[in-house]
Amino acid sequence: MKNKLAIIKQFYFILLFILSFLNSGNSQSLYFPPTNSTNWDTMQPSSLGWCSQKVDSLNQYVGQTGAKAFIILKNGKIVIENYYGTFTKDSIWYWASAGKSLVSMLFGKAEQEGIINLNDSVSRYLGNGWTSCPANKERLITLLNQLSMTTGLNDGVVDPDCYVDTCLQYLADTGTRWAYHNAPYLLTHNVLEQASGVTLQQYTNLKIKNPIGMQSGWWYSGTFFSKARDMARFGLFALANGGWNGTVIINNPSYINNMKNTSNPHNLSYGYLWWLNGKSSFMVPQTQLVFPGNLIPNAPADMYAALGKNDQKIYVVPSLNMVVIRMGNPASTSALALSSFDNVLWQKIMNLGCTVSLNHIENNSTQLHCFPNPSHDKITITNSINWSKVEDPIFINEIGQEFKAEVLKRTDKEIELSIKNLSKGFYILHIANKRLKVVVD
Questions:
Q1: Exposure winner among 75, 262, 353, 371, fewest CB in 10 A?
Q2: 415 touches 407 (CB < 8 A)
Q3: pTM assigned to the model
Q4: Distance from C-alpha of 173 to C-alpha of 151, rounded to nearest angstrom
């Protein structure tokens, strides 16, 4: 009896989480705000099952951390948008190293256009002698090394932002170590300018800013500045894999996929100038230590993020069709990328759901008979429905990911589904406009 109650309690809390992130139609389509207007469609948090008290608590917490702007998009629409102090939706703020991820997208466009090759030596674009390394070592540094932070250049120099040749010193062969070194990154700006024949600002305007309606720009320091909504637009652009409202702007799927996946064997949580969650270990700036576990344990495993100094954040979560933006002063101590704020914030976001009665779910499926349940192989569902006319059902796991069910057999009286490819755990099965609890063991 105690075990049964424990299982019911565990399922109850998982169920709350699932329901909180399902919209009314369970649609994965994205809305895009118009590029020539400030209009942006919104959703009420309550439509997602989010509790108003928890939403208020989240907004209050973010404001207490020194934030200036905080936005959550769901399916492209604004669910939460807050500004703090004198900051408004028209105020401008810096992205810091979150701008690296914008450059990464520009590299994807440049590769698509054939003006760069990631395997090229950086010397092809910047000329020989752009570092103080021996010539044979300098030639080995590629654009891919710049994007993955594996140039081998010494990140322990006095000024890590200095990118004149005397500051760029040999420490190790390319690809043999990961180090968060800003100087080689800053030279990616020069690479793009040399390859494209226009300024970084002009290339950004032509390839991303104008097509998605951003109002923003690079400053002399190599730092990107924008309004919070422009940052949200970019996050939505990343969520759409370089597309916007049906138009493929970056038509380079191989690059986009590699950009969001591990780029080197040293820091598994780093792609092409993007931070990755859900990996078995991670590294952080200014150290060579490798830490076990996820980058942000409380966030969904498939999340990837643009992280900037002093907690400038762009979180992108494909499984939830969600983008989260944070601009402002440091939440606690100054950090170049990851900080304690990330994990606390995501703990609160993932706990936004209101309390829902299990009886409601039970009643919704009383006409369905599912057996065996739990199961690890297959399940059979029966009732008076003509199953031959029912659309393929969907399984939804504890983080809101959808899995199309594999139908093994249909008759007029029953339907048989395979669950072999589902991981162990609790699922909600959406079938025939009803919801059914399924346990995979």
A1: 371
A2: yes
A3: 0.77
A4: 8
